[in-house]
Amino acid sequence: TQSTWGKFHSSRTTKFLRVSVCVFLCVCVCVWVVSQMADIAAIRTQLEFYFSDSNVDKDTFMRTQIEANPKGFVPIELFETKFNKMKALGATSPLIREAVSQSNVLELDSETRSMVHRIERYRPRNRASVDACTVYLEPLLLSSTIDSVRALCAEFGKVSHVFVSKQKTTPGGDVPEPTQKFAFIEYDSAETAASARQRLNGLPPARAA
C-alpha cells in the first residue's frame, strides 16, 4: 500500500542519511589525522634544525638557551612563544612532545616532559671546517627566500643551513633599493660543498628566485 511504501521509503532515506553522515565524519577525521601528521613532521624538522650544529653555531639566542642548562635542555614553552616559525606551524606543547617522540636526535626530559634537548650534546665546531662546508652564492633575485634557495641548492646535496641577505632600512624607515641579494649555504660535508660549488657556479640568478 501507499502507507507501507512511504514507511519503507522513509526508512531507506533515514539509513542513507545516517550512512552519509558517518562517511562524512570518517572523511573529516581522516583529513584531520593526516593534517596533524603533516604538522608534527614539519614541527619535528624545524626543531631538529634549531638544535643542529649549523644553527646553534650561528644562533646566539639558541646557543645561550642550550648552555643555560647543564644537560642542554630547552623549555618547550620557549618554542611556543619565542620562535615565529613554530608559531606559524601551530606548534603547541602536545604537538611538540609528539614531534620530539618521533625524532632520532631529540628527546624530552623524563620527569616533567616539559623540556627538550639533543641526545648528542652540542660541541662548537672548528671555524675552518664550517667554512669548508659553506658555499657563497650571488647574485640572487630580490625575490629569493631561504626556502627557494634551499630548494635550489638541495639539488646538489644535503643542505644544513641557509642564510639569505635581507633588505636594510634607513633610520627614517625607508628601504633603499638594493642591487642584488646573496646567500651562504652550508652543506653536510666539505666534499658535498665542493661539488655543489662547481655545479652552482654560472647558474643564472633566476634559478634561485
State which percent range the strand residues make up.
5-15%
- Mind summarizing the main beta sheet? 3 strands, antiparallel
Structural class: alpha+beta
SSE order, one letter for each helix or strand: HHHEHHHEEHEHEEH
Strand order, sheet with most strands: 1-3-2
- Estimated helix fraction: 40-55%
Low-pLDDT segments: 27-38
Average pLDDT taken over every residue? 80
Quaternary organization: single chain
Straight-line N-to-C gap: 72 Å
- C-alpha Rg (nearest Å): 25 Å
> How many DSSP helices?
9
Shape: globular
Count of strand segments: 6
Task: Lay out the secondary structure.
Layout: H1 2-50, H2 53-56, H3 60-67, E1 74-75, H4 76-82, H5 84-88, H6 93-101, E2 106-108, E3 115-118, H7 127-132, E4 134-140, H8 146-153, E5 159-164, E6 181-187, H9 190-200
Antiparallel strand pairs: 1-3, 2-3, 4-6, 5-6
Descriptive terms for the model:
single chain; 3-stranded antiparallel β-sheet; 9 helices; 51% helix; alpha+beta; 209 residues; 6 strands
Task: Briefly say what this structure is.
This protein has helices at residues 2-50, 53-56, 60-67, 76-82, 84-88, 93-101, 127-132, 146-153, 190-200; strands at residues 74-75, 106-108, 115-118, 134-140, 159-164, 181-187. The protein has 209 residues and is α+β, with helices and mostly antiparallel strands.
Description:
By secondary structure, the protein is an alpha+beta fold. Helices cover 51% and strands 14% of the residues. It has helices spanning 2-50, 53-56, 60-67, 76-82, 84-88, 93-101, 127-132, 146-153, 190-200, and strands at residues 74-75, 106-108, 115-118, 134-140, 159-164, 181-187. The chain has a 3-stranded antiparallel β-sheet. Strands 4-6-5 form a 3-stranded antiparallel β-sheet. Helix 1 packs across helix 6. The protein is globular.
